[in-house]
Amino acid sequence: MYRTGEYAPAVELTDYRDRFPILRDTTYLINHSLGAMPAAAEERLAEYAHAWKTRGIRAWAEGWWDMPMTVGDQIGRIIGAPAGATVMHQNVAIAEAIALSCFRPVDPLRNRVVYEEGNFPSVRYLYQAQPDLEVVVVANDTAIVDAIDERTLLVPVTHVLFKTGEIQDVEAIVRRSHEVGAHVILDAYQSAGIVPLDVAALNVDFAVGGSVKWLCGGPGNGWLYVRPDLADALEPTFTGWQAHARPFAFEPEHDYAHGAARFLGGTPNVPALYAGTAGYDVIEEVGVDRIRANSLRQTQLLIDLIDAAGFEIGSPRDPERRGGTVAVRTPEFEAVHRELAERGILCDFRPDAGIRLGPHLYNTDDELRDAVAQIAEIVETGAYERHLGAAARF
What we know:
single chain; 394 residues; alpha/beta; Aspartate Aminotransferase, domain 1; Aspartate Aminotransferase, domain 2; 13% strand; globular
């Protein structure tokens, strides 16, 4: 346990800083929103361009076509999934829609979807848009367990809440869901790469996530894990030609591929897959356990610094419930965030949560100390006032 005022010895991860070019010019504390780009991502994109330029149509048979599965296996190693159980898609909305499509038509006696208030909007919008589903929104993970009953079809629960960085009690949710025959879709977008995750041990039915954040894989790389014993039993109706057992036979009727491959869709986003592997390589090389140890130490340092500065903490203090982000509530935090950006300190804010600070493996302790000192100085001097009323998207 990490107690206030006590820090474990620093995990030596800052040697990786030179792999991330943006760190030369900024204090990059927005990894919960967009992880820093590894320099190798540019090299991978150049490899893609070279293959397209020189190999043309042959590139499909030389690796492009299989990338949604081969790259999925790399994600699988990070999240504790067996080989062949994870496939790549564009984003979480598509991945969840494919999982949902397995249950069409919906049984009117089992049509409830239960999730927490802190669920990410894109996920909420998907289920709200389904006229044959009854959506039940509850306060927290404990309330989810209480709300699950025999009418529940799906529980699309978040592992780490995006606003506060709070870790949810997934084990209790899975246990209760399976007692009544419901299926759990775990959104691990804010945990994969920063909080150890073993989807097989958790026994979730599906898991989804993406690469924009802690995996440093950039946009266009969502992923979907399907529990292997379910993969051949379910037939997604949101499908495409990659999900066919013999796609290049161009048969007029669908014959589902074996296993998680049947959860593929149309032609894959090959450039994004090339780029994403550079970030996954770093996460695999360092190891999520080491990253988590450093994250716990640094988020505790942030909490102590924020306490000393007299601001309110919007994230869990208990390390067992804290993900990789610390939210700090200041006066006019939207404007404070904009002033920080002008000073080269990149972070973000969310309504009702405050400024979000998300250090990753390559951030130094001195960067954290400076960021909190800058926040305090901006508030004390009123430097944020010139930004009042300005709109911000990120």
